[in-house]
Amino acid sequence: MIDRLPPLALYVHVPWCVRKCPYCDFNSHGVGRGADLPEEEYLAALIDDLDADLSLAAGREIVSVFIGGGTPSLMAPAFYRRLLEALAARLPLASDIEITLEANPGTLERGRFAGYREAGINRLSLGVQSFQDDQLAALGRIHGGADAEAAIEEARDAGFDNLNIDLMHGLPGQTVELALSDLDRALTFSPEHLSWYQLTLEPNTEFHSRPPTLPEEEVLWDIQDIGHERLEAAGLGRYEISAYARPGRRARHNLNYWRFGDYLGIGAGAHGKLSTWTDNGLAIERRWKARQPEAYLRRRRDPRGFVAGRATVEPDELPLEFAMNALRLVDGVSLATWRAHTGYTPEVMASRLAQAREKGLLVEDPGRLQASPRGLLFLNELLALISEADT
Question: Which residues form the Radical SAM core domain (predicted)?
């Protein structure tokens, strides 16, 4: 039984980027280089959006802030200084709050990182994806390998001591050697965190409609196996399907998602999850904001406000909702935590747990739901097995 509200985080979405990448299914809108973005209007809208959601927070402490996109580094440091000042004036912030900004190497002007650090950003996530120029071109990226290295060095010079590098593998035409070369180059910068994920062809993307030739499955297995060993040997422990971190440097904001925490979402297309107490116990609502940037900005003058939709998470949806997040974690969750969040006891799912263990998808631990290495690779199969009660 849940006896307290979960931690509360804040997600801020900046929807613009220089060019939409062919693999990207996020709410991002290419504007070209040198575009005159409506910074003042968007900042005002974000603050209005936050004000409209304050009653949902009810004075709860904000444990982390994540500014994603799109490409948030298109906005000037002063934009974030003013945004964070507005947040601090409205809600209590944890004394050790983690504030992450996503940045792309190809959108940076010299000296911006120092400005972001001074504005209050204390964690940087760099969308490197690869250090190979031809691979970056195949991905539609606007930066080269030298740009990525220069951005990392500038981040360090600016005082960022909590740095995530985003890398992709399984890229068009990529060999095991090329994938490991990317990892090795990233590790020379001793990042505190590394997100290392396989390219997938998502619906509603250019790559989905015109798929490139990706490596054979055996090559993908070799990349994952050897790469995992190399990251672990470098002191970056795997704690989620595609996330590796040094001790004490796991991404708090993402952990809050995976542990089924709450979060406010402000900005065009931002999603939020909020828990509240009702006479019937804990109620969970998901809500999302107007997706198109122009429509979102118009909502400032619309009596409907910024919310484009909302949905209550029904009790029978909780097992899958919870499992989709928690079982991404390498450590999984205790059965007591599973029961508290879903209402399912081990008894009502005994045969399903047995099936999952027989298939090698779960670790043999009677007190935990923990995906095995195979289970992490075939997570959808595991989710289908354990997210329903026995009938």
Answer: 2-236
